[in-house]
Amino acid sequence: MVYRNINRIDMDEFKKDLSQSALCDDNLNDLHSIISTYGYSLKTLLDKHTPVKSKTVTIKPSQPWFTSSLNSFKRVRRQLEKKWLCSRTQDDLNAFKKARNDFIAACDDVKRGYFSRQVQDCKGDQKKLFLLINKLTFRSTSNQLPPSIDNKSLADGFGEFFQKKVNQIASDVSIMCTNEAFQPIADQFSCADITEFSNFATLSQADVLKLINKSASKHCILDPVPTKIVKECIEILLTCYH
To answer: What is the pLDDT of residues 75-94, one digit of tens each?
Structure first.
């Protein structure tokens, strides 16, 4: 897993570097240069102040039957195991083995009760019972895909099916258009009802600041930096494009 800890960024240093970056160069006068420099400069500064880190995460599926009491048993077992590994005495080993056996026995009891209740809940519903048995015994369900020679033939079959479906819909729509009972929606409106936008006013810095501050602080992987950082540096960014 890769991640960034943006909460640990020194914003004062980040803003200082931003004000000295190519993004605030007065020679940027065309839209293409501004956009490319914006993305490159912010991404470079983000990598400098909060580089991407890698972390190995082991994802273990959660067990629905595992309770807080079992977690307490597990915690005691681990503590006694660590104590024995440090001391290597027979008494600590016996205490660890007893805690381990108690934890295993408690897990068996809890699992037995949990699955017994699940079976009881299926009483009178054979389908639900068989689905539960398949799940507990890890039986694979039958393949729901149609039979085919290979994956390519199966994909080609799906493509032909949907192509025929689209062609049929287009044919049906064409027939409907020739029917006088179906008047096209576009004919119900005149060109006079259409509003044309021909005059546009330039936004001021105050307008841009207001729009950005009111927008949600959401971002995606395509953004050079999180929106949160953009908002914190908005005064510098507005100065760059005065």
So the answer is: 999 999 999 999 999 999 99
